[in-house]
Amino acid sequence: MKRLVNLRPSRPAGILLGLLPVFALLLIYVIASDARLEANPNDKLLPSFAQMGEAINRLAFEPSKRTGEYLFWQDTGSSLTRLGLGIGIAALIGFTFGLITGALPVAYSSMAPLITVISLIPPMALLPILFIVFGLGELSKVALIIFGVAPFIARDIQRCAQEIPREQLIKAQTLGASSWHIVWRVLIPQLLPRLINAVRLSLGAGWLFLIAAEGIASTDGLGYRIFLVRRYLSMDVILPYVAWITLLAFIIDWLLARLSLWAFPWHHTGGAR
Amino acid sequence: MIAIDKLWKEYGDNVVLENISKTVQAGEFVTLVGTSGCGKSTFLKMLLGMETATRGRLLMDGAPIRTEPDQTRGIVFQQYSVFPHLNVLSNVIIAREFEHSPLMGKLFGRQKTQVIEEARALLEKVGLANAALKYPHELSGGMRQRLAIAQALIRKPRVLLLDEPFGALDPGIRADMHKLILELWREHQLTVFMVTHDLAEGFYLGTRLWVFDKVRHDPQAPGAWGARITYDLPVGKTPATTVAAIEQSLKLTEQKFDANTGETT
User: Which parts of the sequence belong to the ABC transporter domain (chain B) (predicted)?
Assistant: First the structure.
């Protein structure tokens, strides 16, 4: 018998092992839900899968009685728009500042301390200020995501820019490159895959800020909906929504990973000298 | 072509190079050897413009050398000196793109075809013709250094600086690279400065060998005295074996000294 540390599952066995805890959790849920519903058919805490399916069917495939809209898709659309705008603008701002401070020592001296300070401000503490300044509309929600994510991306890109071997920058200069050439042809192409990576890492925080802002002040959105139906203890809506948000987060992350592999194959081969 | 006039380099109290005076003619191939920390790499960096002299002058064609790297001095480092995000061909033509396109740093159309032709000829010479569309990570260490050399040559620098360029390569490949660099040196009439760890390399390559060594040594203050050029030998004209033996023993004692002081400080 091999030592436990040397025991590696084969590929199918590995997949099976990975699915095991998921099924175990689902099974526990079904048993618990059945037990509660048997005791009280009106119990709302642990709805059955049939009840959840019914709730989502109502929200996703039947027009709302009040507005005539398909709430589930409207919520998804609004949330994804806000998230996309927020993360997109944050990536643009973060990349710009990270690149400038990482590439130019003068810019680093003048801006890096401020960026560090800004990145230490808890973004949620800014939310009231954003509501006061930008009102309760779309802008304040997008602004929260930008405030929360842009400093992180800026610092990450700055660090990556400084980690590009100095030899490359000197080599470029011996080939006659100007500062602009170095930024445009040497730094930016090598930092783009790092940007994708930074965005992937910051998406979790992005979702957090989105749902928080929607929960506090909004009229639609995935976060708004789960905070709204909480009042009626509608776990049959909340649980599928949470699962849907998780699935969306997974898909976005996967798409970004594929994009990076497809667009920057040289980045994913490890130690290129 | 290059004149070194009473050159000193100090970092605070730490003297790295003391009082170096030499002249180098165009077309010479100078090999720089010495123990680690003896200042040979610092000297190369001063030629490149990354470091400035504390005292003394470093002249190229009678004028002080620019204190910033530029296209008159090409460089090949031991590693990291090719661009990982560009394929072999783009790695070479990028130099011409810097030259002809100040705004975009990129060439298109007829101009680009011309430059590609030039780059292909150069790649042919260094033996990378078949790898033109590969990325650096797909190349072996030796091929990567060939690429770095081709890159350094396309702007036709007057001086080629080599910082332990073959240090990370296998001996067999290193011999091929020696042949290549000698060929290119003759063909392009370059002035070459090469730093190396390998003493044999110093005797085999080039026209001139400089040995960097500390003449005086204070065990209480290892930084108080800097290195000088203790030997300046024309390669091939001295009985190489005896000189090598002397040098080897010199280096051993130097290393012992360093080890001693390293422990006490």
Answer: 2-239
Answer whether A186 touches B (CB < 8 Å): yes
pLDDT in tens, A211-238: 999 998 888 999 999 999 999 889 999 9
Nearest Cα of chain B lies from the Cα of A52 at a distance, in angstroms, of 49
Q: Which of B81, B152, B155 faces A167 most closely, judged by CB atoms?
A: B81
Domains contained in chain A, CATH given: 72-269 (1.10.3720.10)
Query: What residues of chain A score a pLDDT lower than 50?
Result: 271-273
In a domain, B250, yes or no: yes
- Chain B contact probe: residue of A164, A174, A182 with most B CBs at under 10 A: A174
Written as six digits, the tokens of A89 are 């603008």
ipTM: 0.85
Domain count, chain B: 1
- Closest chain A residue to B91, measured at CA: A172
User: Which residues of B, range 25-54, sit inside 8 Å of A by Cβ?
Assistant: 48, 50
Q: From the CA of B66, how many Å to the nearest CA of chain A?
A: 12
Scan for tokens 């895959």, then name that residue.
A193
A190, B84 contact by CB (below 8 A): yes
Classify B260 as helix, strand or coil: helix
In a domain, B128, yes or no: no
Give the pLDDT confidence of B234-243 residue by residue, as tens digits.
Answer: 776 666 665 6
Give me the CATH number covering residue B162. 3.40.50.300
CB B179, CB B205: distance < 8 Å: no
Question: Is B114 domain-assigned?
Answer: no
User: B41 with A167: CB under 8 angstroms?
Assistant: no
Tell whether B201 is covered by a domain: yes
Contact between B70 and A168 using a beta-carbon 8 Å cutoff: no
Residue B91: helix, strand or coil by DSSP? helix
Determine, for residues A190 and B48 on separate chains, whether the beta-carbon distance falls below 8 Å. no
